[in-house]
Amino acid sequence: MAMELNKILEDYIDENTGQPVMPSLSGENAFLNCVVKPIYETIKKEVESSKNGTAPHSAWRNYDDLNEYFWTKRCFAKLKWPIDVGSNFFVISSGRKHVGKTGFVEQRSFWNLLRSFDRLWVMLILFLQFAIIVAWERKEYPWQALEDREVQVRVLTLFFTWSGLRLLQSLLDAGMQYSLVSRETMWLGVRMLLKSAVAAGWIIVFGVFYGRIWSQKNSDGRWSSEANRRIVNFLEVALVFVLPELLALAFFIIPWIRNFLENRNWRIFYLLSWWFQSRSFVGRGLREGLVDNIKYTLFWVVVLATKFAFSYFLQIKPMIKPSRQLLDLRDVTYEWHEFSKAATVGLLAHLGEIRNIQQLTLRFQFFASAIQFNLMPEEQLLNARGTLKSKFKDAIHRLKLRYGLGRPYKKLESNQVEANKFALIWNEIITTFREEDIISDRELELLELPQNSWNVRVIRWPCFLLCNELLLALSQAKELVDAPDKWLWYKICKNEYRRCAVIEAYDSVKHLLLETIKINTEEHSIITVLFQEIDHSLQIEKFTKTFNMTALPHFHTKLIKLVELLNKPKKDLNQVVNTLQALYEIAVRDFFKDKRSTEQLREDGLAPHDPAAMAGLLFQNAVELPDASNETFYRQVRRLHTILTSRDSMQNIPKNLEARRRIAFFSNSLFMNMPHAPQVEKMMAFSVLTPYYNEEVLYSREQLRTENEDGISIWYYLQTIYNDEWKNFIERMRREGMVKEDELWTTRMRDLRLWASYRGQTLARTVRGMMYYYRALKMLAFLDSASEVDIREGSRELGSMRRDGGSDSFKSEGSPSFNSLSRNSSSVNLLFKGHEYGTALMKYSYVVACQIYGTQKAKKDPHAEEILYLMKTNEALRVAYVDEVNTGRDEKEYYSVLVKYDQQLDKEVEIYRIKLPGPLKLGEGKPENQNHALIFTRGDAVQTIDMNQDNYFEEALKMRNLLEEYRRYYGIRKPTILGVREHIFTGSVSSLAWFMSAQEMSFVTLGQRVLANPLKVRMHYGHPDVFDRFWFLTRGGISKASRVINISEDIFAGFNCTLRGGNVTHQEYIQVGKGRDVGFNQVSMFEAKVASGNGEQHKGFAENYRLYARSHFVKAIELGLILTVYASHSAIAKDTFVYIAMTIFSWFLVVSWIMAPFVFNPSGFDWLKTVYDFDDFMNWIWYKGGVFAKAEQSWERWWCEEQEHLRTTGLWGKLLEIVLDLRFFFFQYGIVYQLGIADNSTSIAVYLLSWIYVIVAFAISWVIAYARDKYAAREHIYYRLVQFLIITLGIVVIVALLEFTSFRFMDIFTSLLAFIPTGWGMLLIAQVLRPFLQSTPLWGAVVSMARLYDIMFGVIVMAPVAFLSWMPGFQSMQTRILFNEAFSRGLRIFQILTGKNLRLMCDLR
């Protein structure tokens, strides 16, 4: 096919016809019908034969087998071109002469634990043997023991163990991979047999040579030269044995040799490697460079050396002495029966250097330089990139930037373009915070970096940086009253923010006074002259000699009063005049050191020329305040008031923890190592792909208002949990025109739904986050092309307009909530020249794979309308779905369709429609959904984003830096997957959610960091990793989709990448948000991937029992039973302190297993709820249901589902299950000899006779069950009579035993400890034997007995829950423990749990 295509493209002439070469296949959909469809049908039939994944993996071919087949030589010989549909490739696995497995075969067996980790087991077993041999000599250090020749010879026994393990490995390989052997792969079977034979031969060879050593030594009576020669002979044989391992080690140390051998298809190389591995297309030439190998080796040398040293000195060596003492015991009488197992990398990556607002304050003045260096493109010659000189220059630059070394970062003043770019970016970040309602309007003013106005001569830092600085400068001025100007100014300028605060306050006060006083008035002239004198004294450095520093606090007090008067809604002009008069009096009477008379003041222009004016108020007719609509003026007044009055540190600004975390991470990342950003036009294009099925898009009105069984609605829950964000939302709505909160449920309903949806795990939240890429690229494209004049003038205009209209004044026409959803337009877009939109669309697209969107549209599903709304408000959003078209009776055609919303046509339009060979879903749903939509993505890279993820605008700014990682070498290869860290945004909801966040942090961030560097073995965990799109398109896609085998498609994508020569990295300077379910059930099931709201889950007792009965409760009861027996029958346990010291942690485990599902369950200890839960549990237990009953309705159905794994368990697995169940019989054996009736006998007959009790107990239960079924319904009296007779008989038997045998009354309870576990063991064995017992009358008794055991287990578990529910105050304590993180944020969780009652009380009032 490839050759034919090449000839067509090269315009080759057919030798036979003399015409240009034509394709072998032609016609409509020829390639689809003649190539794709036959292969598709084969895959479909294989999937059908897998019995929904329950058939053994070896019995059917999956995607990997078919992919690997196309890289074998027999593919060309069998399939041919055009494809021969009669080839045995198209015969399914259940037929004859089919193509068998071509890749890895997974046999379901516990032996996989040994086979998959064979190197680990070999290493650990050999070390254990070596350590025991050496430690047995009881020397202080192991090398001292190795000085003895006998110890040296004993160490040689390691080769026996090693060869035995090789034999076991070869047998396991044959047992697990026999399905690969077919007529076409006979040599594979030959190799399996030869490997087993050779391994067995090595055992014999080592035995012979080792025996010769000891025979010679024994005959000579010492270690003679001949005996030593035989040791050398053994070592020569051992050298041959380990030669393959030595070659592998050499190839590992010098990796390019093995890469060369594996990447060549020379037959000689194949013959040499045939013994060690099968010929495969994947997994060849994967060895890393020498430096990476050294780092990898050193890591494991340190880890293993530490582990082995710990094991030897603290685990093995201390056990030698007691072991020898046990072996030295002689004549011991036994009472028996009568037959015989990430921080250093983070530190080097400069993670966490900025963790809070205090550290942020220290580095904020370097932010502009950091943003310019990292986020702004730098024109650089292509031949200068990546050179040693450029790398060294960058390293020095980053070092100075990170630690503020040298003076390359001169003070940022307001006329610098760099500062204006920084202000645009920073303010846009803060604006997105306000749009997301994580900061308030007041916090927006405190955090924003205002553009220059009022002729302020310095950069106007955010107010939270200038807090308290002016007051500190005033105190310094008071202390240094007589100091010269230079010294005072030097002390002030030691703090950059204090210097800027002083200058801005002075310039702002000057502008404020001159603007509030009418021009061309005498008062305006006086104020102008006063400031001229101050400016002159500062210029000649005689300010402290001219003016009295003690007057400054008086000025400060009056200025505060003035700005407070101007900030009031209703402004009292008389009070303003009085305050101005007071300021004037302080200036002319107290401020000047040299007192001036009235005449001197008139001559200097500091007093009115008319003497009559001095008698009244000077500013009475000269004040003219700006109109209240002048938002720019009054916003500056508020800023001045903040600078003048802030006394306390603003370390709690912003208040919202999420806002503070995001600012801290973004600021820290600016000082981390990252590639330089190219211009947007030159950056790699990329796409984002999100699979979606039928999850929530937007919360509906009904979903928000519907209450659960505890009276809590989603709206009320989110309103309370995110209390500060709710207040910010209400504030924003009032600013946008809302008068009453009732409007939220009418005219503002869309805004409310969006606000709630952005706090759940919804598609709307994910789309909002991913569209930040589009918004960021538009802004960066503007900054790339804008001139200095554009940036300077534009930023001034933007600052003025933002202050006039607020942060939301630039929304598009239409819905009031348009901007709050789309996030693709902002106030900065007013500065755009037009090309930014096209540039951003060329570089970015977002595809959501809504698999059933077509079906949803056909059914008028609300989800379809909401998805259409997302497309309408996000122009870079595309939706891919599978369209089913009916073509006739019971016939359908399937198409992959890509659609978008056309803003001009005002409707949804199709972009592409591609016909499929059949239904999409043959394997796992999510990876199939991803792979079908991958072809619709564009660009060089694709980022995979799940439905429960979010993104942030400030992080989107760094995306073009991240994509530059593809141009870097990591070792000997460039990356093909860029790993990105995740932040769990649900971690602050509760203590349980925090635990889940920490769990993910440990694995997803810390673990992945170390796996990537230094180990270079990171695969791909979850999302939001970025894939090299073209690389993966040619290698099977980004997701593995085989049924059941590839349930977790993430890790298999990493395997696929690594095996095909890819490289996976992990980057720490960029992050994406991720949500996790925060109920206990999801924490206990770490692999759960369900996208839903992030609320705690209110689970009933029956539900918890179904989830944890076998994984928690039964194990806890079994362990508790063992501890109880140990307490009652062990001589050591007689001492209470000793028993507690030995078993306290085991009892803690028992309590944890039983109580954890209830402790982490809201309302889990409510008394009434506990009572109702027990009734519900008993109803569930006794409800038999019918054929269609579900597990949550019927105990019997649940019990059967719990045994489903046994249906696919092999013979060896079932035998092992039975062997494990025999432990209960041994437990019975140990207890029966403690009964009084045993009369201290140790005869085996005691144990055998004890089975009479078991038989009688089962007979009684069978009789009761029979009587209940026959008489309970109609002849109830007979059923009661049977019960009476059984009870009477039991009493008679007990009395007789007490009278005529050594039976004690306590034996009744002791025997329960023995026979209840025995019955449970018999039940477990009966479950294994279900195929044989289900058709017999015994099965009914088994089911009845199993029901009684679950009732007993339920009562045992319910007892402590009921007791704690009954105890006063325990529920309140549980609520405090469960929501401790929420309490620390000032949240009212108690109102959530009792919210319904509170609202009812409010309604009654």
Walk me through the structure.
- The chain is mainly alpha-helical and 1405 residues long.
- It has a 10-stranded mixed sheet, with helices on both faces.
- A hairpin with a 2-residue loop joins strand 3 and strand 4 (891-902).
- It starts with a helix and ends with a helix.
- The model is unreliable at 336-341, 803-825, 1079-1097, 1383-1388 and 1396-1405 (pLDDT under 50).
* Rg (C-alpha, Å): 40 Å
State the secondary-structure class: mainly alpha
Which percent bin holds the helix content? Answer: 55-70%
DSSP strand content: 5-15%
Morphology: globular
User: Strand count, sense and closure of the main sheet?
Assistant: 10 strands, mixed
Gap between N and C termini: 82 Å
Q: Strand order across the biggest sheet?
A: 5-4-3-2-1-6-9-8-10-7
Task: Report mean pLDDT, rounded to a whole number.
Answer: 81
Tally of strands: 10
Question: Which segments are poorly predicted (pLDDT under 50) over 5 or more consecutive residues?
Answer: 336-341, 803-825, 1079-1097, 1383-1388, 1396-1405
DSSP helical segment count:
63
InterPro entries: CALS1_helical (IPR058851), FKS1-like_dom1 (IPR026899), Glyco_trans_48_dom (IPR003440)
Keywords: Cell membrane, Cell shape, Cell wall biogenesis/degradation, Glycosyltransferase, Membrane, Transferase, Transmembrane, Transmembrane helix
EC number: 2.4.1.34
Transmembrane segments: 117-136, 193-211, 231-254, 294-314, 1137-1160, 1211-1232, 1244-1265, 1277-1298, 1305-1328, 1348-1367
